[in-house]
Amino acid sequence: MGTVREIEINSSINESEIVVREFDPSKDLTSVEEVEKRCEVGPSGKLSLFTDLLGDPICRVRHSPAFLMLVAELSSTKEIVGMIRGCIKTVTCGKKLSRNTKNDPTTKTLPIYTKVAYILGLRVSPSHRRMGIGKKLVHRMEEWFVQNGAEYSYLATENDNHASVNLFTNKCGYSKFRTPSVLVNPVFAHRLPVSNRVTLIKLSSSDAESLYRRRFSTTEFFPRDIDSVLNNSLNLGTFLAVPRGCGYTQPSWPGADQFLFDPPESWAVLSVWNCKDVFRLEVRGASRMRKTLAKTTRILDKFLPFLRLPSIPELFRPFGLHFLYGLGGEGPSAAKFVKALCAHAHNLAKEGGCSVVATEVANLEPLKVGVPHWKRLSCDEDLWCIKRLGEDYSDGSVGDWTKSPPGLSIFVDPREF
Asked: Where is each N-acetyltransferase domain found (predicted)?
């Protein structure tokens, strides 16, 4: 998920001097980019991750059903000193059992939906922190959320980002909610082999939608507009892994409905999202020795690909990534099929010129063991914080979602990574 880098608050500027308004791309673009650059200065002597939004400050929210970017400027000088992005969508917050008809005693599990808002990209210029700007931006964004019917607001931040955690939990009324894992794997110069015991099938967007809605719509944070996600130009495809010889192949694929009527004992699925065309990342602060070592591993990997050396990709200049989402499956061998799907996704990323592939899964996700990743590049516990925006909502059997225990799985929307 996109994280929030914060940003605490002192007070030498009167609150009335801070004007919060909607971002205007025709006049604010340069100033916003300058604030982004000032906020990306990492600790001296340490590695830092920089994000290049490719000239589009709202690129990470614009694919959501509703989105907004606000800026904070000084009324006296018109200098932009902060910004925040937010978006709204409808997602699953729980599930319930429902009987089909009075004459049919069978029951099925149905999702309970809620309208939820997401905050990301909160920035305050280093020279204007501790002045109440971050808190004011959050409150103004929350006003827009409420006006548009959002029942909850949530965000992702690093567990050790104490300023951010303090702002949201102590100042803005958020509570710690979920701690998913961000798993990142480098893309090597060699291709990864896909097990010959597995058959991979690329699904059409309609088949992918049918499979996700019928099997995963009760997963927490599943987006009700999954069709919009799957039909987005950034979606590179949904891939299904099944046992070789089970009767399902690409040429003879009967469709998702028939597959779900008679699935094999084990199978797995995931989708691939092209973040490379949205933003680029860059690792800065690396020593010359570290860069030389990384370059050496790439050279060996390039000229001796048959050795399948675990080379370090070029991360010290702007690079792209692919995000794996909608990861799921069933059966005793599902994790092995996930591993095959991840190998295929790695090869797609290699062809697409990306340096890493990443995914985010619930901490308790049983398929997590099938996702290859480098611990040094990954985050064991990302932190999601949540806030209930009102008390007049009917959540059925869920009650107050902010107090619900975590489930085994979570659906991470690629539009917000």
From this structure: 18-193
What gap in Å lies between CA 388 and CA 392, rounded to an integer?
Answer: 10
Does residue 106 register a pLDDT over 70?
A: no
Q: What pLDDT score was predicted for residue 76? A: 86
pTM higher than the cut 0.85: yes
105 vs 192, more confident: 192
- Which DSSP string do the residues of 367-404 spell out, in sequence order? GGGGS---TTT-BS-EEEEEEE--S----GGG--GGGP
Q: From CA 265, how far away is CA 239, in angstroms rounded?
A: 17
Handedness of CA 202, 203, 209, 212 (dihedral sign): negative
DSSP per position, 1-27 = --B--------SS-GGGEEEEE--HHH
CATH number of 15-180+382-416: 3.40.630.30
Is the CB of residue 71 less than 8 Å from the CB of residue 33? no
Q: Are 385 and 176 in contact (CB under 8 A)?
A: yes
Task: Please tell me the distance from the alpha carbon of residue 230 to that of residue 272, in angstroms, as a whole number.
Answer: 10
Q: What is the pLDDT of residues 370-401, one digit of tens each?
A: 999 999 899 988 999 999 998 765 555 567 89
- Alpha helix locations (H) across 217-311? 226-230, 256-261, 288-303
Class of domain 184-280+302-370: alpha beta
- The answer to whether the beta carbons of residues 140 and 20 sit under 8 Å apart is yes
Q: At residue 43, does pLDDT exceed 50?
A: no
Average pLDDT, the chain: 90
Q: What is the pLDDT of residue 393?
A: 56
Report the alpha-carbon distance of residue 291 to residue 313 in Å, rounded. Answer: 10
What is the Cα–Cα distance from 265 to 339, expressed in whole angstroms?
17
Place of tokens 């680029």: 280
DSSP state of 168: I
Task: State the Cα–Cα distance between residues 167 and 55, nearest whole angstrom.
Answer: 28
Q: Decide if 72 contacts 15 (C-beta within 8 A).
A: no
Q: Are strands 152-158 and 104-124 parallel, antiparallel or unpaired?
A: parallel
Give the length of the chain: 417
Tell me the pLDDT tens digit for each residue of 166-175: 899 999 999 9
> Where in the sequence of the chain do the CATH 3.40.630.30 domains occur?
15-180+382-416
